[in-house]
Design a protein that fits this description.
The complex is a heterodimer of chains A (about 325) and B (about 525). With about 325 residues, chain A is mainly alpha-helical. Chain A is about 80% helix and about 0% strand. Chain A contains 15 helices and no strands. Chain A has helices at about 5-30, 35-40, 45-55, 65-75, 90-125, 130-145, 145-160, 170-175, 185-190, 195-230, 235-240, 245-275, 280-285, 290-300, 305-335. In chain A, helix 5 (about 90-125) packs across helix 10 (about 195-230). Chain B has about 525 residues and is an alpha+beta fold. Helix content of chain B is about 35%, strand content about 20%. Chain B is built from 19 helices and 19 strands. Chain B has helices spanning about 5-25, 55-65, 115-125, 130-135, 145-150, 165-175, 185-190, 200, 245-255, 265-275, 305-310, 315-325, 355-360, 380-395, 405-415, 430-440, 450-455, 460-470, 475-490, and strands at about 35-40, 70, 80, 85-90, 95-100, 150-155, 155-160, 210-215, 220-225, 240-245, 260, 280-295, 330, 370-375, 395-405, 420-425, 495-505, 515, 520-525. In chain B, the strands form 4 sheets. In chain B, strands 1, 8, 9, 10, 11, 12, 13, 14, 15, 16 and 17 form an 11-stranded mixed beta sheet that branches. In chain B, helix 11 runs antiparallel to helix 13. The radius of gyration of chain B is 26 Å and the shape is globular. Classes of the chains: A mainly alpha (about 325), B alpha+beta (about 525). At the A-B interface, helix 2, helix 3, helix 5, helix 7 and helix 8 of A face helix 1, helix 4, strand 8, strand 10 and helix 9 of B. Chain B: Belongs to the bacterial solute-binding protein 5 family. Chain B: Keywords: Plasmid, Signal, Transport. Chain B: This is ABC transporter substrate-binding protein. Chain B: Pfam families: SBP_bac_5. Chain B: GO terms for molecular function: peptide transmembrane transporter activity.
Chain lengths: ~325, ~525
């Protein structure tokens, strides 16, 4: 009983968030100057074709009716049919979201490992060249346009050094020989039993994931450094020092468990922003993820696709936040015990 | 050794290790010899149903997947050749054609029958999707098309029409992708809710062309596979058209040999690739024309023919073509592109600011004068718009450039909510009427033409255009279109500036790739590697 009530409360707020998201997105698409019917039929089409497209898209209905119809479709679970791909939106999302999750997950793992290492190194060597390098890397990660960095990495590692494969999720020789089952290239190629395909999938993932990781690394390393430096002035650290603990022991045994909640939160935030904001990286690397799907849908005025993708990204954002809260609460409770 | 040195060594070691791992994993694959890999954007693709698809990506695929009764010659599109029809005969009334079908098979193995022709043409009209207006030119509607397209016997099919047009024009219309013949038995089996199989054909194919769709993933790739039943089997086993939205990435792919063909590269990228070994740049004239559209109803000044005339002298035609577009367009000042019968090739206008100023002053048009200029937020439109802004400013006309997405620019054009815009026109079929009907027809603002968007009511030119389309004598017809072009060239709210030139980057290995003047004339069937 004590568990059911908070869960119900959370579900209610989750539903309200999604409803709010749908309402705002709907209003924004309707305020946009894009005419979905004209986008669909093009400029040469006859008036009767254009009028038929408006009816087909439900644009001849009053706005509240259009919104209610959409909510009705969304509740039924199929999210409607995309105007630009001609496919059910749910199917499009099932195809594109795993690509983004795969990329964002790889990026956040790389970013978290390197970011934590850099943050710890900078804190341990405050005001030395290590700290300066860490801060420059972090500043660079924050300020460099990810699109430009992606192109630069492609030029260097793909075109010049030939260390990495080109844009895309797989080489053409593997792309249509491995059956997509889960939508995750690493899992599907692994399940196919083709070692070459699996290796190819890793190679294609490495470069875009590293580019994105660089962006995540910036916030993670900066926060790690700040959190550790704050803790270094605490009484328990002085006590540990008095007991003869060396710097590494103090950081890894005493400080890191204390700041793990904060670090987990920043990593989760970085992950969430990667899930929704990898658009430019996906464009440069021809990565067919949900970021690109959403952008293309926006330019096409594809209402069902825009709403469906926004809802899914929004829902995953809320779920990720809830999961992080739960983990942080458990971590803190564990530490208190 | 200090702690910091140890850390830095470890960090360097990790980075080096990662780089090695990447290098080891990256199998640098060349494209297979039996597969053609094309890098381009396919984000525009809405439907691969020939009765619906009307975007660049889809129309470029139709000649490879489907056949029509007749087809345009690859080199000279004005010549009409047999395809699924072995021969044809015009009716004595001039408003009918009877086609004798050649022996051909669909990719499914089913033979091509008169029933397939009847099904294909009638479904295209009844579906009434984007390109349906092309067949509507024959007077075909959902109500009368069943009677207009009929089976004569097991080898013959007859088309009749009510519109006042000749059989030559009817044949031109039948070369358009919408007239593609689909396999009735395959498509009808996939029909749902009276959609004539449209839902299924959006992502599948049922044609008799050299290739068939083996896989299509929206925004990812279109894979075509050789059609074993094709009368002229292609040289390659498959063609993979990969979606590479970023042009720089496309350039890298073709440079590295991971793509055999790259489309849509910008002028500076083409320049950089021109002298690169292993790569060749194919330059193909395109039927696309770029023009300025003035809204004569926007205000009193824009309604004055003197303003239209001044505008013609405020375009740096050569500068735009040579310096900005560098080979991707040529100066062209008439509504029919070179390659179409009767196209005017003279270029009477050049940048002449003093003359423009005089024309404006003589007409009492006071400067400075501000004009809203809506433009596609894409290249090369923005660069062209900036050039126009600079030259118009010299005569005291300030162009306020307002970039927008395509559908917004189109919507404002349709509703007349604009002052000046930069547009392009690609013919829908290989006949002068395709362009003439856009620029020279607007009797009373009831038809959907560029002339209507300009608010330019022209009953006399409309009559001339309709007379031209029904003219049976080819020479007389050409003369009529030349006359129409001259009139529109010197006095209309359109300023024709450029004709496109498609630049396609190919690997040296690619042989026999063919591309024609019109947007749909892309052929992969003869390609060898």
């Amino acid at each position: 009983m004590s568990f059911a009530w908070p869960l119900l409360k959370w579900l209610w707020s989750f539903a309200l968030t999604l409803f709010g998201l749908a309402l705002v997105t709907f209003a924004m698409t309707r305020l946009s100057p894009i005419d979905p019917a004209l986008q669909l039929v093009g400029d040469h089409a006859s008036q009767s074709t254009y009028d038929a497209a408006r009816v087909q898209l439900g644009l001849d209905q009053p706005l509240p009716i259009q919104f209610l119809r959409y909510i009705e479709t969304a509740l039924s679970g199929n999210l409607g049919q995309s105007v630009s791909t001609g496919q059910p939106v749910a199917r499009d999302i099932a195809r594109t979201f795993p690509a983004t999750i795969e990329l964002a997950t790889a990026a956040v793992i790389i970013g978290a490992i390197l970011g934590l290492a850099l943050g710890i190194a900078a804190a341990l060597h405050q005001k030395t060249w290590v700290d300066t390098v860490a801060r420059i890397v972090s500043l660079f990660g924050y300020s460099v346009p990810i699109f430009w960095l992606g192109l630069l990495m492609l030029l260097l590692f793909y075109a010049r050094l030939h260390w990495a494969p080109g844009p895309g999720r797989a080489d053409v020789v593997f792309q249509y020989t491995v059956k997509p089952i889960t939508g995750f290239a690493l899992i599907d190629t692994w399940m196919s039993g083709k070692a070459g395909a699996f290796k190819d999938a890793i190679a294609h993932l490495a470069l875009p994931a590293t580019v994105l990781a660089f962006h995540a690394l910036a916030s993670i390393s900066r926060l790690t450094r700040a959190a550790i430096l704050t803790e270094l002035g605490q009484e328990y650290v002085t006590t540990a020092r008095a007991k003869g603990a060396n710097a590494r022991r103090i950081v890894f045994v005493h400080i890191l468990p204390n700041v793990s909640g904060t670090l987990l939160t920043v990593i989760a935030l970085a992950y969430a922003s990667l899930l929704e904001g990898a658009v430019l990286t996906e464009t440069v690397f021809a990565w067919p993820g949900i970021g690109r799907y959403l952008t293309t849908a926006m330019f096409a005025g594809d209402m069902p696709a825009i709403l469906g993708a926004t809802l899914v990204v929004g829902a995953s954002f809320v779920l990720l936040n809830a999961l992080t809260d739960l983990l942080v609460t458990n971590l803190e409770a564990g530490r208190r015990r | 050794m200090s702690t910091s040195t140890r850390y830095s060594r470890r960090l360097l070691g990790s980075v080096f290790g990662l780089a090695l791992a990447l290098g080891a994993a990256a199998a640098h694959a060349e494209t297979p010899n039996n597969v053609l890999v094309v890098a381009q954007s396919i984000d525009d693709a809405v439907s691969f149903d020939p009765a619906e698809g009307f975007e660049l990506t889809t129309v470029q695929s139709f000649n490879n997947i489907y056949q029509r009764l007749v087809q345009s010659n690859r080199e000279d599109g004005t010549k009409i050749e047999p395809a699924l029809a072995a021969s044809w005969e015009s009716g004595s009334d001039g408003k009918s054609l009877t086609f004798a079908l050649a022996d051909a098979k669909f990719a499914s193995g089913n033979p091509v029958r008169p029933e397939d022709v009847v099904f294909s043409l009638t479904r295209a009209v009844k579906l009434n999707k984007s390109p349906a207006f092309i067949l509507n030119e024959l007077g075909w509607t959902a109500d009368n098309v069943d009677a207009a397209v009929t089976k004569v016997d097991d080898k013959h099919v007859k088309l009749t029409w009510s519109a006042d047009v000749g059989s030559g024009f009817a044949l031109s219309l039948l070369t358009a992708p919408i007239a593609s013949i689909v396999d009735e038995q395959t498509v009808a089996a996939q029909a749902k809710d009276n959609d004539f199989g449209n839902g299924w054909l959006k992502t599948n194919s049922a044609g008799s062309g050299a290739f068939a769709i083996s896989a299509y993933t929206p925004h990812e790739a279109l894979v075509l596979e050789a059609n074993a039943n094709s009368s002229d089997k292609p040289k390659l086993e498959s063609v993979i058209i990969r979606n590479v939205p970023d042009v720089s990435s496309r350039r890298l792919l073709v440079e590295q040999g991971d793509a055999d063909i790259a489309r849509g590269l910008a002028a500076d990228q083409i320049d950089a690739l021109k002298d690169k070994s292993g790569i060749k740049v194919l330059s193909v004239p395109s039927a696309r024309t770029d023009y300025i559209l003035l809204n004569t109803k926007a205000n009193e000044t824009l309604g004055k023919p003197a303003f239209w005339e001044a505008a013609r002298y405020l375009v740096d035609y050569n500068g735009i073509a040579k310096d900005l577009l560098r080979g991707q367009s040529n100066v062209h000042q008439a509504f029919l592109p070179v390659g179409f019968p009767g196209a005017l090739t003279d270029t009477p206008f050049k940048l002449d600011v003093e003359k423009a100023k005089k024309v404006l002053a003589d007409a009492g048009i006071k400067t400075p004068f501000k004009v809203e200029f809506i433009v596609f937020n894409d290249q090369p439109f923005l660069s062209i718009a900036q050039s126009l802004q600079s030259t118009f400013a010299k005569a005291g006309i300030e162009l306020d450039i307002q970039p927008g997405v395509a559908s917004d620019i189109y919507a404002r054009g349709r509703s007349g909510k604009f002052e000046m815009t930069l547009r392009y026109w690609i013919p829908d079929y290989f006949d002068p009427h395709s362009n003439a009907s856009a620029f020279a027809i607007n009797r009373d603002n009831s038809t959907n033409t560029a002339a209507k968007y300009a608010g330019w009511v022209i009953p006399e030119l409309t009559d001339e255009t309709l007379a031209a389309v029904k003219e049976q004598d080819a020479a007389k017809r050409v003369a009529l279109y030349q006359d129409l072009q001259k009139k529109i060239q010197t006095s209309s709210p359109f300023v024709f500036m450029l004709q496109g030139n498609d630049q396609v980057v190919l690997s040296d290995k690619v042989k026999n790739y063919a591309q024609g003047l019109n947007a749909d004339q892309v052929y992969y069937d003869k390609v060898e590697k």
